[in-house]
Amino acid sequence: MKKNFLILVMTICLIVTCSISLSGFRANAKDDSTEISYKYYKSVAVSNNDTLWSIAEQYMDGEHYDSVEDYIEEVKRVNALPDDTIRYGEYLIVPYYGGEFVE
User: Fold this and answer.
1) 14 in a structural domain
2) Does the residue 21 lie in any domain?
3) What's the CATH code of the domain at 74?
């Protein structure tokens, strides 16, 4: 009788443990949404006190660029700028990233 009771208790413990484990895996799978980011380009007017650095601070994100200098180099390349000089009233094409969450 004790042996049957012990087997019953162990079986119940095993079922409870498996249920908790499977619930945890299922909960993690539901929360495992990822963000897909897309690269966009935008035309911006250079304001009076703008610099490439200030524009980079506004549109750059640290996830896609290693440094502000990398972002500035891309802006210069896209706009065929020979140096860091920009002028009030010019328009620059600047890259930025946007995304959406996908499950």
Assistant:
1) no
2) no
3) 3.10.350.10
Task: Output the CA–CA distances (angstroms, integers) from residue 100 to 18, 37, 46, 65, 97, in the order listed.
Answer: 35, 7, 29, 19, 11
Considering only 1-5, 66-70, 71-75, 98-102, which range has the smallest mean pLDDT?
98-102
pTM for the structure as a whole: 0.62
Q: Packing angle between helix 52-59 and helix 68-79, nearest 10 degrees?
A: 110
Tokens of 29: 């799978």
8 A C-beta contact, residue 94 and residue 75: yes
Q: What is the pLDDT of residues 24-40, one digit of tens each?
A: 655 555 555 677 889 99
